[in-house]
Design goal:
This protein has a three-stranded mixed β-sheet with strand order 1-2-3. The longest helix has 39 residues, at 329-367. Helix 3 (69-97) runs antiparallel to helix 4, helix 10 (229-235) crosses helix 16 (372-409) and helix 11 (237-268) packs antiparallel against helix 17. Strand 1 and strand 2 (9-13) form a beta hairpin. The protein has 18 helices and three strands. It has helices at residues 20-49, 51-58, 69-97, 99-108, 111-120, 128-137, 140-155, 161-190, 196-216, 229-235, 237-268, 272-279, 281-300, 302-326, 329-367, 372-409, 417-439, 447-459, and strands spanning 2-6, 9-13, 219-220. It is mostly helical. It has a single domain (17-459), classed as Growth Hormone, Chain: A (Up-down Bundle), CATH 1.20.1250.20.
Length: 460
């Protein structure tokens, strides 16, 4: 294992995290350093991605921006959609440009949406389309997740990936809670007429994240994404089963995180300060629980943990329906908080399932007579691609959550109950899929299917 410095950045040659000797003699320290800096960069990305969930709470006739509830939900949908669309190309970019190089770029570009928000968010009379365009640029923060997860997957051995991916994603997810805390602090100290202060607080942090990535991170020589790997992943049924489950876990987390403040305003008439005072708690606990999901999956298996998570989320949604019918604010907040925690656990356990599934396929292929090196290289290649695909599709779940709330609250006297019934039905589907595909049959495909898939990959 050697480190070289070129015009394209610092590169580590011959990186093999599965080599226990290299791992114990310096490899784990390099991996952990890159993980720490990746968490910080992704954290800032999540904050910028979700910044409009805070800024819309400030928008009122008092500052010359009197948008209705439907328009505000549309403002939080837009960055969610763009962030989901960027996740797949961002995951490609790591293998093309290197993890360090791409982290520097993806961090620095966050200055664009932040500066635009800073300039326009307190300009009275600014039309909705301008804010929609600025919100779209904030979607770049959502892409950071996919590139960061793909990068960190390459640094850690398979036996530690549940912990590492859970910590990386959980630290990133905390950005949703932290930006809401920043918004709360601004409201408490400067009032609800200074949303530009929220954007201003992130400018030095973006610069710091870019500089730290440039100084402290490394590129590793991993196989570039081959032209046929997306087609190969698309042909594998597990890609779509995992993506469906990730819609239920991460889609719920990010969708609820973006919408919770607006839901409280519309469901209970909360003031901006009251809404901001509650919105950070759920995303905070959900982010902290994500590493727990990864650790639990390492210990008990991702499928079992995911199954129990969805059963809990269905029960939590039932609590929201009961709270809505009774008009109980404490019960409503408690139900949402439970959903955030469970979605965080499910995020970690579902992502842990990805390398386990494809490693299992590789083991079956090896026992069937295929070359071990090629089989496990294929497993790592597919795992990286499926992480990107599932991350992109899962983020679209956040779009669906906010569109459901838009439909429920868009009209006069709207209620969230239709959206909650839709969520309950979807969680029931996720329970059925997890039970039928994974818990009942294990994490691998059948021997015949795995052998056929590996044979096809070898021919290609």
């Amino acid at each position: 294992m050697t480190t070289t410095v070129t015009n394209s950045g610092r590169w580590i040659e011959d990186w093999d995290p599965e080599d226990e000797t290299c791992w114990e003699h310096g490899g784990k320290h390099i991996a952990r350093r890159n993980l720490l800096l990746s968490v910080f960069s992704e954290h800032i990305g999540f904050s910028v991605w979700s910044i409009w969930s805070v800024l819309v709470l400030f928008m009122s006739p008092e500052i010359g921006l009197g948008f209705d509830p439907g328009e505000k939900f549309l403002l939080v949908v837009t960055p969610t959609l763009v962030g989901a669309a960027l996740r797949l190309p961002y995951s490609y970019a790591v293998t093309r440009f290197g993890g360090r190089n791409w982290t520097v770029f993806s961090s620095a570009i966050l200055l664009v949406p932040t500066l635009l928000a800073l300039y326009f968010v307190q300009r009275p009379g600014t039309p909705l389309w301008v804010f929609l365009a600025i919100g779209a640029t904030a979607g770049v923060g959502g892409g950071n997740f996919a590139s960061s997860m793909t990068n960190i997957t390459g640094f850690f051995p398979q036996r530690h990936q549940g912990w590492a991916l859970g910590l990386n994603a959980g630290g990133g997810n905390l950005g949703v809670a932290v930006v809401q805390v920043v918004g709360l602090l601004v409201m408490m100290t400067a009032g609800s007429t200074h949303p530009s202060y929220v954007a201003a607080a992130y400018l030095p942090l973006i610069v710091l994240a870019s500089l730290l990535a440039a100084v402290g991170m490394d590129n590793i020589r991993v196989p570039r994404t081959e032209p046929g790997v997306l087609r190969e992943a698309a042909a594998n049924r597990h890609t779509w089963w995992i993506s469906l489950l990730y819609i239920g876990t991460f889609g719920s987390f990010i969708g609820y995180g973006f919408a919770f403040g607006l839901v409280l305003q519309n469901q209970f008439g909360s003031t901006p300060l009251e809404a901001a005072g509650y919105t950070f708690l759920g995303p905070l606990l959900g982010s902290l629980s994500r590493p727990v999901g990864g650790w639990s999956a390492d210990r008990w298996g991702g499928a079992r943990v995911t199954l129990w998570t969805f059963l809990g989320m269905a029960a939590g949604t039932g609590v929201l329906l009961a709270a809505s019918s009774r008009g109980s604010f404490p019960l409503f907040v408690s139900g949402f908080t439970a959903l955030f925690v469970l979605s965080g656990i499910g995020n970690g356990s579902t992502y842990k399932m990805i390398p386990a599934i494809f490693a299992g396929q590789a083991e079956i292929a090896v026992t069937s007579g295929h070359d071990a090196t090629r089989a496990f290289a294929r497993a790592r290649r597919l795992s990286g691609m499926v992480i990107g695909v599932a991350g992109a599709v899962g983020a679209l779940g956040g779009v669906a959550v906010n569109l459901a709330f838009l439909a429920s609250y868009g009209g006069p006297g709207g209620s969230g109950e239709p959206a909650f019934w839709a969520f309950l039905g979807f969680y029931a589907v996720c329970v059925a899929v997890t039970r039928a595909v994974y818990v009942g049959r294990g994490h691998t495909t059948s021997g015949a299917e795995a052998t056929a898939e590996t044979t096809e990959a070898t021919r290609a």
